[in-house]
From TrEMBL:
It is an enzyme of class 2 (transferase). The keyword Transmembrane helix applies. Its EC number is 2.5.1.141. It comes from Futiania mangrovi. This is Protoheme IX farnesyltransferase. It catalyses: heme b + (2E,6E)-farnesyl diphosphate + H2O = Fe(II)-heme o + diphosphate.
Length: 307
């Protein structure tokens, strides 16, 4: 990160304290809500009981850890956030928060969330949370994002870990079930973000981020989206196949996968003509797709008799 990037926001920020609202925006609350939701699914599906207070503490720590990752990401990416249209309203480019404030907040919340999770719940869950923060803030943000077009593929591991952390919070172990929950999000991430990058390719190119459409071209990206969708579909059915979810999850999952693959195939077949609306439809549906899958898993976990 350049000195200019480090100082961005510091020169523009207002005098005095940043508002609580601006500091909260540093934590990427929309991403945080998805992290909490998928972690909750891991907690509910895990065998055994976790005291409600400890369960709430685990979710709080996971949420704070996710927020810490977001703050560190915004600190490091302040230079490119100021250039890209979709990120120019973030707190640092707006001058509402300094880059140094974001760094300090990210470090403080990282340490507090990991320490509290370890002391209150267990150290396996805390270790996984620490690894998640490190992977997102250092491996993905500081290294992969600006170095390789596989940034989303590898970096997706950070976003896929919360249900595994939730499972470990209850059981103190990691078994095949949380690995499947991890794999679903891990394989979902590339087609989800590559769909976005297709119609934001010029912005990524302008800031030197080697997203797949920028480096390999849009045709290759459309093909990769379809291939990942085809690989993802059977993995999403594993909870049903392995018996920790039933037809309440499995039947809708079949329908959702058919729609997802259909949209990916339409994007691939359409070529450059009509690519942007097709990519936007896939991106929007992919958000709904993951939410419904995990909501169904949550329902099955809360009412096992339905399976």
């Amino acid at each position: 990160m350049s000195d200019t990037a480090l100082d961005i926001g510091s020169e523009q920020a207002h005098d005095g304290f940043s508002s609580a609202s601006d500091l909260f925006q540093l934590l990427k609350p929309r991403v945080m809500s998805l992290v909490v939701f998928t972690a909750l699914v891991g907690i509910v599906l895990a065998p055994g009981d976790l005291h409600p207070i400890l369960g709430f503490t685990a979710l709080l720590c996971i949420a704070v850890g996710a927020g810490a990752s977001g703050a560190l990401n915004m600190w490091y990416d302040a230079d490119i956030d100021a250039v890209m249209r979709r990120t120019q309203t973030r707190p640092i480019p707006r001058g509402a928060v300094t880059a140094r404030e974001a760094l300090a907040l990210g470090i403080a919340l990282s340490g507090a969330s990991v320490l509290l999770l370890g002391l209150a719940v267990n150290w396996l869950a805390a270790g996984l949370l620490a690894f998640t923060i490190f992977f997102y803030a250092v491996i993905y943000t500081m290294w992969l994002k600006r170095w390789t077009p596989q940034n989303i593929v590898i970096g997706g591991a950070a976003g896929a870990l919360p249900p595994m952390i939730g499972w470990a919070a209850v059981t103190g172990t990691v078994t095949v079930e949380p690995v499947v929950l991890f794999a679903i999000i891990f394989l979902w991430t590339p087609p989800h973000f590559w769909a976005l990058s297709l119609y934001k390719a010029e912005e990524y190119a302008g800031v030197g981020v080697p997203m797949l459409p920028v480096v390999a071209g849009k045709a290759a990206t459309r093909r990769q989206i379809l291939l990942y969708s085809l690989v993802m579909a059977p993995v999403t059915l594993l909870p049903w196949g392995l018996g920790f979810a039933g037809p309440v999850y499995g039947v809708p999952a079949l329908v959702l996968n058919a729609i997802f693959i259909g949209l990916a195939a339409k994007l691939w077949r359409g070529g450059d003509a009509g690519e942007e609306p097709a990519a936007k439809r896939l991106f929007a549906f992919s958000i709904l797709y993951l939410f419904i899958l995990y909501a169904l898993l949550l329902v099955e976990g809360m009412t096992p008799s339905l399976g």
